[in-house]
Write a structure and sequence with these properties.
The complex is a heterodimer. Helices cover about 0% and strands about 55% of the residues of chain A. By secondary structure, chain A is an all-beta fold. In chain A, the strands form two sheets. In chain A, strands 2, 4, 5, 6, 9, 10 and 11 form a seven-stranded mixed sheet that branches. By secondary structure, chain B is mainly beta. The termini of chain B are far apart. The interface between A and B is medium-sized, with 23 and 25 residues.
Chain lengths: ~110, ~110
């Protein structure tokens, strides 16, 4: 199984809502990532988890809260988002959090904040 | 901040044409260069990870070269097919042990 599964595929939420994005992989990878991608822009790194511990937080606003409950799961909790947070949120994993390791991506969650 | 630049932004070719595009990155403190293919409505898929100057990698009709001294990588597609239509992203980490910084991509469209 070389898949990274993300749910939901689409999400519409209001600015006062609380929602969560989920990501799952069963490849035994020890590193998991959240990227944000807006139209016509490259994916931007948000968070990196290595061995279930947060290792990189790219100065992301606190309205985004990542969680890694176990080595296979990665969540992104959303609260009080702004319309400018509307984007495609991509999850990825790699065997290790190392620059030579290729990333395996999910197909993303398209988020719209109204 | 690492700048990874890709050109051209988009490209349209006919089936059977060969094509290539460029990824540029700072030549100092090089660690690795990744290429990904991203088809519409699918997940980005890794094509190559390259680390050594002069590296050449090949996967079917797609190949890539790496020049770390001058800071560029070329991706070549021989005999383009409609199924090659996708956005091709390159990425490089700014420091060892950090995550990838992506370029904006080259969007390839192949007409039959």
């Amino acid at each position: 199984d070389t898949e990274v599964t993300q749910t939901p595929k689409h999400l519409v939420m209001g600015m006062t809502n609380k929602k969560s994005l989920k990501c799952e992989q069963h490849m035994g990878h020890r590193a998991m990532y959240w990227y944000k991608q807006k139209a016509k822009k490259p994916p931007e790194l948000m968070f990196v988890y290595s061995y279930e511990k947060l290792s990189i937080n790219e100065s992301v606003p606190s309205r985004f809260s990542p969680e890694c409950p176990n080595s296979s799961l990665l969540n992104l909790h959303l609260h009080a988002l702004q319309p400018e947070d509307s984007a495609l949120y991509l999850c990825a994993s790699s065997d290790l959090a190392h620059t030579n390791e290729k990333l395996f991506f999910g197909s993303g969650t398209q988020l719209s904040v109204l | 901040i690492l700048n990874v630049e890709q050109s051209p932004q988009s490209l349209h070719v006919q089936e059977g044409d060969s094509t290539n595009f460029t990824c540029s990155f700072p030549s100092s403190n090089f660690y690795a260069l990744h290429w990904y293919r991203w088809e519409t409505a699918k997940s980005p898929e890794a094509l190559f990870v390259m680390t050594l100057n002069g590296d050449e990698k090949k996967k079917g009709r797609i190949s890539a070269t790496l020049n770390t001294k001058e800071g560029y990588s070329y991706l070549y597609i021989k005999g383009s097919q409609p199924e090659d239509s996708a956005t091709y992203l390159c990425a490089s980490p700014p420091q060892a042990g950090t995550a990838l910084i992506f370029g904006k991509g080259t969007t390839l469209s192949v007409s039959s």
